[in-house]
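Let us work through a complete example step by step.
Step 1: write down the sequence.
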Amino acid sequence: MRGLKIAGLVILSLILFISLIVFGLAFSLSRTVLNPDFVIAEGEKLEIASLASEAMSQMLPAEFSADALDSLTETITTLEPQLKGELNTIVYYVYEYLHGEREDLELANLLLSTLFSSDFIVAVIDTMDGPQMAEIIWEAFGEEIVQEFPLPEEAFPSLVADLGELLTDLKPWIKEQVEYAAGPIADYLAGEVESFSVTISLEPVIDDLRGMLLGVFLDFPPDELEGLTPEELELAFDVFWAEFAGETLPTTFQIDETVIGEGAPLQIASFTSEAETVLSEVREYVGYVRLAYILGIVVSALLIAGIVLICRNVKGPTRTLGIVFLASGLVVLAVALIGKNVGGGLMLQAMFATPLQLQAWASQVLVDLLAPLQWLGIGFIAGGIALLVVSFVYKPSQITD
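Step 2: predict the structure and record it as tokens.
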């Protein structure tokens, strides 16, 4: 009988040891990668603007000035909260699907209602600073403009400043056109229509651009036109303008499937289909983790009750459970520490070519990822030590007649 009791305790203790480790892993996953709040919190720590600045400094041509790069970085910094807000919406939506709270994913509609929505594009336009964009445009197209309008070099600062004011004034018009074209473009990208066409009149832009260039031309006429009256200068400007506008500026801009890309709906459908297939498989594994988490709690509670019933005293179960919790805690803590140190080193080796900021962020994500497992291991160890102390300190009361 005593041999059966010992065998039962050994078997139950071994199963409890495995159950606690499985529960620890499932607990850690449910608090981290399977928790949208954790994913969003880690994403908030990533400074997208500085990463984009570093990437752009390597990708953009050498003639792109530091001031222009700073302007783009400032725009991205202003836009970053809005961008992260849209990404957070996507994260919550996807996790609702992974946790079974949503049956259909519909990634295409999700993207079109967030990152590709007219509201987000308008927000992007709002963040753009007119003078900053003027400097970028001037660096990109300044030589072409000077070839068409032979302005003296001292006119360039005034031209850039006036262009900045023009871009600022055009913001409401640009946003109107975005809202006007967003619906047909979204329907086309979603595959609801095979073709579309949106025509935007550029006459307001052309008129404002002509007035801006004329003002600079009158203030800084070419050297060969010095001494002419304003009326004569305007006639000379009209000659330059007619050639420039006729060759460069169409009166309308038509957006259709050829501009967006005739294969764009198919590419989006292919991407979203593949992503939905992968997420469907992930959803199945998420279900397994949640099941392991629940079973870990239930099975552990039943095993603890079984050990208590077999021993029918205080010393036996507290000592047995103390050893099991201490052993499982050491294993769980070891997994967390090995993952943090060894895994962190391997991760940094794989990311040696990435920006230092991204490496630091990834290292912190790994630390945060393993923190619940580490603290759970410490908790198991503390609980195991407490139970062992009780088993040695406790003295059963003597029953006297």
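Step 3: interpret the result. Residues 33 and 384 are 28 Å apart (CA to CA).
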